[in-house]
Amino acid sequence: MSSYVIATPQVLAAASSDLAGIGEAIRAATLVAAPSTTSLAAAAQDEVSAAIAKLFGTYARDFQALSAQADAFRGEFVRALNNAGGAYAAAEAANASPLQDALAAVNATTEALTGRPLIGDGANAATPGGNGGNGGILWGNGGNGADGAPGTGQNGGNGGSAGFFGHGGNGGNGGSGGAGQAGGNGGAGGVSGLLGGGYGGAGGNGGNGGAGGPGQAGGAGGNGGAGGASEQLFMGAGGPGGNAGNGAAGGIGATGATGATGASGGAGGAGGTGGAGGAGIGVLGTGGHGGQGGSGANGGTGGTGGAGAAGDINVNNGTGGNGGDGGAGGAVGSAGSGGAGGSGGLLGSAGSNGTGGTAGSLAGIAGNGGDGGNAVGNGNGGNGGNGGTAGSQAGNGGDGGSGAGSGNGGNGGNGGNGVSSGNAGNGGNGGTATGSGNGGNGGNGGTAGLQGGNGGHGGNAVGSGNGGNGGDGGTAGLQGGKGGDGGSSAGSGNGGKGGDGGVAVTSSSAAAVGGNGGNGGNGASGGAGGAGGEAATAGTGNATGGAGGNGGTATTGTGGAGGAGGVVAATSTSSSAATVGGNGGNGGNGASGGAGGAGGEAATNGTGTVTAGKGGDGGAATTGTGGTGGAGGIAAITSTNSTVNAVGGTGGAGGAAGNAAGTGGTGGAGGEAITRGNGNVTGGSAGVGGTGFNGGGGGAGGSAVGYGTGNVTGGAGADGTSGTGGAGGAGGAGGAATTAGTGTVTAGAGGHGGNGGSGTSGGAGGAGGAGGGAAVTISSSSAAAIGGHGGDGGDGTFGGAGGAGGFANTNGTGTVTAGAGGNGGTASNGLGGTGGDGGGAVITSTSSSAAAAGGHGGNGGNGTSGGAGGAGGFANTNGTGTVTAGTGGNGGTATTGTGGTGGKGGGAVITSTSSSAAAAGGHGGNGGNGTSGGAGGAGGFANTNGTGTVTAGTGGNGGTATTGTGGTGGKGGGAVITSTSSSAAAAGGHGGNGGNGTSGGAGGAGGFANTNGTGTVTAGTGGDGGTATTGTGGTGGTGGTAAITSTNSTLNVVGGTGGAGGTAGNAAGTGGTGGAGGDASTKGNGNVTGGTAGVGGTGFNGGGGGAGGTATSFGTGNATGGAGADGTSGTGGAGGAGGAGGGAVIQNSSSSATAAGGKGGNGGTPGGAGGAGGMATTTGTGSAQNGLGGNPG
């Protein structure tokens, strides 16, 4: 190595000036740092915090003392340089001797006294294995050590140390070993200068081992030399450690004599250990990197990588060195581990660690990654090294180093990948953050054929940082690795997420098991749990999904969500193995609970069982809402040869709420179930709601789908939970049931609503869940479809509404029955719950002769005011079967208010022209009783496009009133026949009667009856008016209209009869007026007569008679108006007026028939006015006679 030493007065003066400037800069920095470092306040009031503060304060005071000593030395040295410059100048002025002569004289004296020159580089060693000379005391680089002699295994020489200025010399490389002999160790690097000049010398490389002779083991590789330390006070870097030598191959075995076994070959040599990096001791100094471990020969073990250098905690503010990589193993040997990273200084980050060595063969063991270095002052921890790959056991990843101050913890290294017949390495754990930083993330597990590596855990955060995320588990052929847990935060940070479980995939007969997900870390908000690993097999073994990790606990926020369970699948059609989906993880507890994870799906293309995963439970809440339960997993069978039953997974329970105003979590939905085989299929059970001041809602039932011969059943919805003081939870909806096969389909019922808290100030009852729908989709199926019933509403201050009934549809030939609506809940201090509507029923097949029945409406709940009844469901068919619509629910009873309105009846329709079946509309529900009665519901219509009878529904009766007016009766439904070839009868629904009360309620109108055929039409009768206790009786309902639109009909037509007026029982009451008779018309040739009027009600004052109905003929028959009813005589007051006669109209110019107006009714005694006679008109040739007026009373 060349060296140029210049010593002139000018150079020495310039160096002196530079040193003075450096001294001033260091002195200023030291003074600025003194107040904030020598008197540290304790982080808390505990003894540990006080001790830590005292420790660092002591370090700072030591540093100040050392700095003062260094400054004094610097001053003396500056003066020495100035004096030396003056001496050189004087010497040059006195004589012209070369400066080198003077320097040589000075160096000779110094070297004689100290063994090293004053100024100048140390000599490089020339003899093999010799040490390099030290540099000059003031100025000079250390000399390099000589390499060891090849073939001797001689160690390399050490590098020489520098003086105050200069870098250390490099260590010499170790000599290679002789036959079967270990290689020599590399020499250590020399120490750098104190005041400047650079870096510590590099350590020499270890020599390679010598190859073994026949039957002899190979020599081990030599160790790498340590890097030289940097003692430079400011900055500087330690030297890197030397790489280790490789192990040599063993000798071959000797050939055996005839008939004898040959001798074994020698084992391969192990690789050497890498040299440690040199320390960087000065301010902002950097530690040297460790050397790499040597590779082992066949059968030899790889060497360990050298450790990165750590800094001196008192003065080092720099970065720690990285650890060296481990050496590779021989063909059957194990690899070396990576070296650990060096620790950082007060203001520096720690070094990362080395990677583990690769194993040399399937039987070898790979090296582990080294751990990351720890930060000391204010830096990030070093990352862990990755584990070595291959071999029977891959290496584990190294752990991340801890972070300090605002620094983060280092990430864990990833686990090494293994071979197809081996195990993978685990990921390293993330480093802890000791200050305000975040914890390091865990390393991922490696991949392998047998066992996947587990993910490393996330690092914890001691202060305000977040916990690190857990590493994911590695994929494997048989067992997926587990996900690492998320790190926790002890302060205001959030917990880390758990790692996902590893996937397991195989095509053998062995079982495949997915790894479990890691748990979420705890924190201000909890970390989410990791998902469970999937498992899949194309072979014949069982497959099991990993469980999802649990969510972390939250101190102030929401708990972490649970991880989803692992999905599993068996793809082989010949497999009879079981598949089991992973369970979802539970949600974490917190101010609000975390949601549970969904259960994993279980699927097979074979004939084995399937078990879907359960949903995780929701987390408990301290002040808010409990977590929602996770949905149950799907169960699926795709093989048409399977006869196994499929059941969806169970939903998780909702989390409890512990606070006085909290709400329980909603339960998780049941999982879906599907099969293309011939087993039964059932939707999963729903999870229950959580308890709380307000109850949690129940989960929905799982749906079910079948394609074979098995029955299909939807899961029932769970009941809502009752509130402890507030509202009850809603019931969950029932699951749908659908088939493209031939089995019966039954949808799930809706859950009942939970009750509200007790007392008049408690909460409302929960609503009932809707019933599930049922459907048959193929035309060849004769299976029945049954809709689910709606759940009842819960009781409370206000009653909960009942759930709607589920629909029922078929494209086949089976019956369909829709679900009934749930009843409304009872109210303690308010309105009763509304009843749920009944479901609709539909048959779409034209070849079906099956019946369709609509669901009944639920009854309204009782309360201070009654709830309304639900409507009846419709019933339709495109086939030839009967249709019966659902009845409307009754209105609820009221204690202080109005009774509930009755629900209207459902409509019934036949669309097929070839049908001779009957269609019946649903009856209206009765009105509820109360201080005022509730109105009755209207009757449902009935229509046909075929030749069968149609009967409309009757109207519901009005409710009874205790102090007010009775409820109005519901009107009757209309009936229509549209077919011209029909001779069937059409009958309109009767109107409901009015309710009794202080004044009676009016009766409902009768329903119309129409036909386009030749059959009879019977209009509905009007409902009677209600009885009055003190006031006026209710008016009777009008009779329904009757009409024949066919010109071929010869039948007579009569309008519907009006309802009677209500009776008045009081000494001053008035009877109700009778209802008018219904109108009648025909386009045929029969006679037509207006409907009969209803009579007036009795009372102190008599009720008036109803008017007669009008008759209209468009054919050739007579038209006769209905007579008005006589007024009723008063028992003590005036008589009622007589009703007017109905009109008579003929609108056919070819008709010779007679039109006769109806006679007016007589007035009741005393003094009732007579009714006017009806007018008669004709456009034909017959006579028209007006009706006579009624006589006065």
Radius of gyration: 50 Å
User: Treating each run of at least 4 consecutive H or I residues as one helix, how many helices?
Assistant: 3
State mean pLDDT (0 to 100 scale).
Answer: 85
Span between termini: 147 Å
SS elements, strand count: 42
Largest sheet: 21 strands, parallel
Runs with pLDDT <50, length 5+?
Answer: 1-8, 93-97, 253-269, 294-352, 354-362
Topology summary:
Layout (H helix, E strand, L loop, with lengths): L8 H30 L8 H48 L4 H16 L389 E3 L5 E2 L21 E3 L5 E2 L23 E3 L8 E2 L21 E3 L5 E2 L23 E3 L8 E2 L25 E3 L5 E2 L21 E3 L5 E2 L23 E3 L5 E2 L27 E3 L8 E2 L21 E3 L5 E2 L23 E3 L8 E2 L21 E3 L5 E2 L23 E3 L8 E2 L21 E3 L5 E2 L23 E3 L8 E2 L21 E3 L5 E2 L23 E3 L8 E2 L25 E3 L5 E2 L21 E3 L5 E2 L23 E3 L8 E2 L19 E3 L5 E2 L8
Parallel strand pairs: 1-3, 2-4, 3-5, 4-6, 5-7, 6-8, 7-9, 9-11, 10-12, 11-13, 12-14, 13-15, 14-16, 15-17, 16-18, 17-19, 18-20, 19-21, 20-22, 21-23, 22-24, 23-25, 24-26, 25-27, 26-28, 27-29, 28-30, 29-31, 30-32, 31-33, 33-35, 34-36, 35-37, 36-38, 37-39, 38-40, 39-41, 40-42
Helix pairs in contact: 1-2
